Amino acid sequence: MRLSRTFIPTLKETPSEAQIVSHRLMLRAGLVRQHAAGIYNWLPMGTLVLRNIEQIVREEQNDAGALEVIMPTIQSGDLWKESGRYNDYGPEMLRIQDRHERDMLYGPTHEEVVTDIFRNNIRSYKDLPLNLYQIHWKFRDEVRPRFGVMRGREFLMKDAYSFDLTYEAARHSYNQMFVAYLRTFSRMGLQAIPMKADPGPIGGDLSHEFIVLADTGESAVYCHKDLLRKSIPLVVDYASNLQPIVDDWTSEYAATDEEHDEAKTIELGDDLVSARGIEVGHIFHFGKKYSEPMGAQVASPNGDMITPFMGSYGIGVSRLVGAIIEACHDDDGIIWPDTVAPYRIGLINLKVGDPDTDKVCSDLYAKFHEIGMSTLYDDREERAGVKFSNMDLIGLPWQLIIGPKGLKDGTVELKRRSTGERQILPLDSVLSTLTGPQSEVGLG
Ligand code: ATP
Ligand code: MG
Predict the structure, then answer these.
(1) What number is the average pLDDT over the span 371-382?
(2) Whose CA is closest to atom 8 on ligand 1?
(3) Which atom of ligand 1 is the closest one to the Cα of 150?
(4) 292 C-alpha to ligand 1 centroid (Å)
(5) Which CATH number does the domain housing residue 135 bear?
(6) Measured in whole angstroms, how far is the alpha carbon of residue 1 from the centre of its chain?
(7) Which ligand is nearest the CA of 197, by number?
(8) Atom number, ligand 1, closest to the C-alpha of residue 314
(9) What is the mean pLDDT of residues 236-259?
(10) 256 and 363 share a domain?
(11) Are residues 351 and 303 in the same domain?
(12) Does residue 203 contact residue 191 with C-beta atoms inside 8 Å?
């Protein structure tokens, strides 16, 4: 993409409405603009990042055996009257009436809708296990929308729902999502720590929140320091017994504020990290809470009708954009992890109008396009200083800086955004350096 042709309304000044760094940088780098309290427009750069995150989430859900669907954003209130939540949910639910004065609502979550799909279409144990997920917009009329997309009212969530015949099978479904979540967040460059969370009315130990540590996080959390550097399983066979992986991750102490056991503070001493955290995901087993009242049943192998066990599994896809920036930035701007960056590389033309520089830049730009490396080409007639600071603010992983001075010696400069490290490269080795077998840049 040529910078002159895209739409990246960067801001020099720090917007006064933003209290935390990710919100400030999302506004300054032109990722989002607020439409109304807690409701955002996603501009081109923000949309690219959101789509990259979404794609990682999707690939990992698919690998774990979940099936993607799209459920409606506007739901019928009648279903919620069946589950009993229509009155219980409270003012966070945006209630709407259609022209026939039927009660509708903008979905804050989809347990009722997915259970309705199940009961109308699944008859036999042979169709189990089943895990349906979507990546879709939710609306919750939060009392205090704040911190930009971190706590919005309209936000993008991945929500998955599992159905199983037995508790043991439901536990396996839970473990599949647990492991998929470890891999999902790690691919985005985040260390998200699974922490014991409030299991709700069902009880048991099957509820975990996945927490990214950040000073600006809304929750107080506690965990053993070894969890900050634990590695993620690289290859997973989702059909195998995943309990050892889950046990390995849950054997060290980690809990959210509500679940925290004060005795652990003394017991663990210096090994306990007490920090703030951002909840980027939440997984939850709730048994028959919805399947029972809504009459979802399947025939078991011996013909008895059985009410399935269910779980639900959320990821805050739009919140992740903010969480990643909280974890990956410096004073100059965002530092996107390679896997979610809107473009892999920024090509900076230091002297637009100089025929040699223009030619080298546009040839490389064309070449990058050809090999599928996503590139943002700063072809604007702007001062070099402006281009450098814009590129740092936007935070692409690599910058290739090209100007007449270097070209006189046949060289260009490559900068790694995360370390600030610079390399002078002979022009004719740019492509092999960027794409060769030893290259860190890789194809975008
Ligand atoms: P929170 O405790 O932050 O209000 P929650 O527990 O109500 O979240 P869940 O129902 O568990 O949220 O939703 C699944 C995921 O969706 C959360 O882990 C979080 O990442 C994300 N999420 C929830 N509410 C919001 C929101 N208002 N804005 C952005 N993301 C959200
Ligand atoms: Mg939650």
Answers:
(1) 96
(2) 279
(3) 29
(4) 25
(5) 3.30.930.10
(6) 24
(7) 2
(8) 14
(9) 95
(10) no
(11) no
(12) no
From the CA of 284, how far away is ligand 1's center (Å)? 13
CA dist 377 and 337 (Å) reads 19
User: Using CA positions, which residue lies closest to atom 27 of ligand 1?
Assistant: 151
pLDDT digits (tens, 9 = 90+) for 159-171: 999 999 999 999 9
pLDDT of residue 444: 42
DSSP character string of 75-108: EEHHHHHHHTHHHHSGGGSEEEE-TT--EEEE-S
Which residue range forms the structural domain that includes residue 366? 345-435
Output the residue whose Cα is nearest ligand 1's atom 14.
Answer: 314
Mutational pocket test of ligand 1: of 279, 280, 315, the residue with most ligand atoms within 8 Å of the beta carbon: 279
The DSSP-derived string for 374-393 is: -EEEE-SS--HHHHHHHHHH
Residue 400 Cα to ligand 2 midpoint, Å, equals: 42
Q: Total structural domains in the chain?
A: 2
Task: Note the pLDDT tens digit of each residue in 21-54.
Answer: 999 999 999 999 999 999 999 999 999 999 999 9
d(CA 439, CA 430): 11
What's the mean pLDDT in 136-151? 97
